[in-house]
Design goal:
alpha+beta, S16 Ribosomal Protein, Chain: A, five-stranded mixed sheet, 2 helices, 5 strands, 23% helix, 40% strand, globular
Length: 83
């Protein structure tokens, strides 16, 4: 079972709200999550991002791969150090 870190969409029509989740790579976009790791709200200014970095580190140590969008959010949250 390959694990991915990706976003799942919540919120109403034209008012998206996203949760950062750890899921099986073959699960549906809004399918059952293994664990909730944070959220991202693009509808407020500045964008509201809350990520539990300890949980993300645990999943990444176990081989979870982040999606491109999640990788960019993790960079903004300070998970990746700038080289």
């Amino acid at each position: 079972m390959a694990t991915r870190l990706r976003l799942t969409r919540k919120g109403s029509k034209k008012r998206p709200f996203y949760r950062l989740v750890a899921v099986d790579s073959e699960a549906k976009r809004d399918g059952k999550a293994l664990e909730y790791l944070g959220y991202y709200n693009p509808m407020v200014e500045p964008n509201d991002i809350k990520i539990e970095l300890e949980k993300v580190k645990k999943w990444m140590d176990h081989g979870a791969q982040p999606s491109e969008t999640v990788r960019s959010l993790l960079k903004r949250a300070g998970y990746y150090s700038s080289n």
